[in-house]
Amino acid sequence: MSLDRRLVVLLSLALVTTACVGRRSSEYTPPAAPTIPPTTAARADGLSSFDIRVTDDGYVSADQVPAGRLAITLHNDGHGQRNAQFLRLNDGVSLAQLAATFQNEQRSAMSLVSFAGGPGTVPPGGTQEVVQDLVEGQYVMVTLLLGEDGFQYVPSGMFKPFRVVGASAASTSAPLPGDERILLEDFGFAIPPLTAGTHTLRLDNVGKVPHEILVKRMAPQKTLADALAFVLTPVGTPPYADAGGALVFPGSQSVSMALDLAPGQYVAICYFRDSVTRKTHAELGMIRDFTVD
Ligand SMILES: [Cu+2]
């Protein structure tokens, strides 16, 4: 068994907890095999693209990507909701050490890594693109979902190591794409008026601590209070559906996110848990609704 495979097994044993809250779609039929080769390639705008496919068996992607600015696209070919949280192993930490620590105590394993963004949660058949800068190092990508106990967990097999290599290119000094800005604050969101259609949004974490933004389309007649109640007690049918987002990245950093919005009511949520109070950032104010006309 390869090291990667052993790590997946170890992490799966260690991390699977309560029942999955992932939604299943009766209409969506995943392709038999990934249709995009797991490579990186240069795009017309000069950015390197990093395509990630996730199936029910795990992630398919390049094992190595260049440091610097990357256009990262997650394609969900599986049956459940999926995302890709990037975690950079702290200098001196090995993959084996991370896996062993995860197996014993998930919370202390988080002290071995730094949150490094990644595409947010999409339903089966969905895609999410983010543009962000990655520095050299050893990383893992994991799907982080909300368990019925209110804590996040990694579904079985949803873990893949990858390396970021080389010095960062000069492109990282240029502004990130996006005419409209969302501010992620300690603890709240500032969201501009958004029209229906496609947007490229720059996300500025102006806080001191890591934040994320998950965008959800509210079900009919559901309210912000229903959304917060579900974050606290995620049991039963969610009052909202996944509409993309960008996962946890550090304070004073920015990423860019593409969103395609149909008219309707939405809610933005940060599920990250404060290390002192152990409350989710949503409870501390990082949940807000907005209308798309
Ligand atoms: Cu937050």
Architecture blueprint of SSEs:
Layout: H1 3-15, E1 40-42, E2 48-55, E3 58-61, E4 64-66, E5 68-76, E6 85-89, H2 95-104, H3 106-109, E7 113-115, E8 127-134, E9 137-142, E10 145-146, E11 152-153, E12 159-165, E13 180-185, E14 188-190, E15 197-205, E16 211-218, H4 224-232, E17 240-249, E18 254-261, E19 264-269, E20 287-292
Parallel strand pairs: 2-5, 4-12, 13-15
Antiparallel strand pairs: 1-2, 2-3, 5-8, 6-7, 6-9, 8-18, 9-12, 10-11, 13-14, 15-18, 16-17, 16-19, 19-20
Helix pairs in contact: 1-2
The structure holds copper (II) ion.
3D architecture notes:
With 293 residues, this protein is mainly beta. The chain has two domains: 3-171, Cupredoxins -  blue copper proteins (Immunoglobulin-like); 175-292, Sandwich (Immunoglobulin-like), CATH 2.60.40. It is 12% helix and 40% strand. Strands 1, 2, 3, 5, 8, 13, 14, 15 and 18 form a nine-stranded mixed sheet that branches. A five-stranded mixed sheet has the order 4-12-9-6-7, with helices on one face. Strands 17-16-19-20 form a four-stranded antiparallel sheet, with helices on one face. Strand 13 and strand 14 form a beta hairpin. The N and C termini lie far apart (52 Å). Copper (II) ion is lined by residues 211, 270, 272, 281, 286. The site of copper (II) ion has 5 residues, from loops.
